[in-house]
Design a protein that fits this description.
The chain is built from ten helices and 16 strands. The protein is of the alpha+beta class. The protein has a six-stranded mixed sheet. Strands 1-5-6 form a three-stranded antiparallel sheet. Strands 2-3-4 form a three-stranded antiparallel sheet, with no helix packed on it. Strand 8 and strand 9 (189-190) form a beta hairpin. The chain is globular and about 80 Å long. The structure holds zinc ion. Zinc ion binds at residues 329, 331-332, 334, 348, 350-351, 353.
Length: 393
């Protein structure tokens, strides 16, 4: 979205209201103790909101929909928390969580200007222009957010149709890579783009500069903005890559097999190494090194790739137990620890087959025993709720 400075101020005011209501609701919820009764639910809280709007002019000046929907969002967050699919709701902070939701008839006030531009009538703000990055779907609600780099986004609540299978019967295996984001059983290595070397150096330089200047000074604000801009750029690139790769895989293959992450977490943690000289003590096992920043980013893009695949190729993604996939030969099936020559190279001690270690693991995953990735019991979803993907839980 491209709001004018005046509209930006009005939008930010709406974000402030949504955040204020959310934080109040969170405060009420977290004040629960064993000896008191239950904390107010959604109905009670929205009645309180009506009272508060009557009493305080500042709240009354804002849109009721925005404030009401912040309450709805909060109760959805609580439900997700009790269902154990999400973390505990957190405090909403200025600059970090800027956004609100519009529902109902107000959400359909959209006028298409031409092929690339349209405008939306946001309550209490007016007509704001936005660029059409895709066709506007039939949706009952939209959400306006401002990211940390200060860009405004308009998103409609709509689940895009899934991608149909090509019908070739082809099966592909995908393994999480050590240095690349993922390897396919076809031999392709998928690299998730981040910042270029020059950009990384610039980021480091900026971060160093930030530690040297006074907090709250103009210079620190300028440096912070530049850092956030670089981080947003790397995030955009990753997101773009994940979208394109998942669409490509869903179009090319009938069945996509991936390692089951829940099992991986148990099998891939390095074992504690006992110190032979001091019984009861342990040697370093590179666990901290494994928790490196780059690794975290790779893991994130891997997780995003799998969950997007499950949405785009619904029912065609199978999770496979990854045990021994990195030690087993993809050609003869010989399984031994010595097969893994190094992190990157796989060489079979039985048949001499040599391959990229990640590709070899992907071949094993493609041939692997499949475990269904779909949940057997569907989660009950309120008809009033924004449409959401049950498989992404
Ligand atoms: Zn072999």
């Amino acid at each position: 979205m491209y709001p004018t400075p005046a509209q930006q101020a009005a939008l930010l005011e709406q974000c402030r209201h949504a955040r204020y209501v959310w934080n109040l609701a969170l405060e009420q919820w977290s004040m629960w103790t064993r000896d008191k009764g239950p904390t107010p639910g959604y109905v009670e809280q929205s009645r309180q909101l009506t009272e508060a709007r009557a009493a305080f002019g500042r709240l009354r000046a804002g849109s009721q929909t925005v404030q009401q929907q912040a309450l709805r969002d909060f109760h959805q967050a609580i439900r997700n928390f009790y269902r154990r699919t999400h973390q505990r709701p957190t405090w909403r902070r200025a600059g970090m969580h800027e956004g609100f939701r519009i529902v109902g008839a107000q959400a359909s006030r959209i006028v298409k200007l031409n092929r690339r531009w349209a405008k939306v009538n946001v309550p209490k703000v007016g007509w704001v222009g936005f660029r059409l990055s895709r066709a506007v779907p039939e949706a009952k609600s939209y959400r306006i957010t401002r990211d940390r780099a200060g860009r405004w986004h308009l998103a409609f609540a709509h689940i895009p149709p899934t991608i149909p299978a090509p019908g070739t019967g082809e099966i592909v295996g995908m393994d999480r890579g050590v240095t690349v984001a993922a390897a396919l059983s076809t031999g392709e290595l998928l690299t998730c783009p981040g910042l270029s070397e020059f950009e990384q150096a610039r980021l480091k330089q900026l971060q160093r500069g930030l530690t040297r200047c006074r907090r709250g000074s103009n210079r620190s604000r300028r440096i912070k903005a530049a850092i956030v801009k670089l981080q947003a750029r790397s995030g955009d690139r990753r997101k773009n890559w994940v979208e394109k790769t998942s669409t490509d895989l869903a179009r090319r293959f009938d069945v996509i097999r991936v390692e089951d992450l829940r099992i991986t977490q148990m099998t891939r943690r390095p074992k504690p190494k006992p110190d032979p000289e001091h019984p009861g003590r342990y040697l370093p096992n590179r666990r901290r090194a494994k928790a490196g920043l780059n690794r975290g980013i790779l893991a994130n893009s891997w997780g995003a790739l799998v969950s997007l695949l499950e949405r785009k190729a619904a029912g065609r993604v199978e999770r496979v137990n990854p045990a021994y996939t990195s030690q087993t030969c993809g050609v003869c099936g010989h399984c031994a620890q010595e097969n893994r020559e190094s992190q990157a190279v796989f060489r079979c001690t039985a048949c001499g087959h040599q391959a990229n270690a990640d590709v070899n693991a992907a071949v094993n995953i493609a041939a692997g025993r499949a475990v269904s990735a779909r949940r057997e019991t569907p989660v009950w979803v309120s008809p009033k709720r924004e449409p959401q993907q049950a498989t992404s839980v």
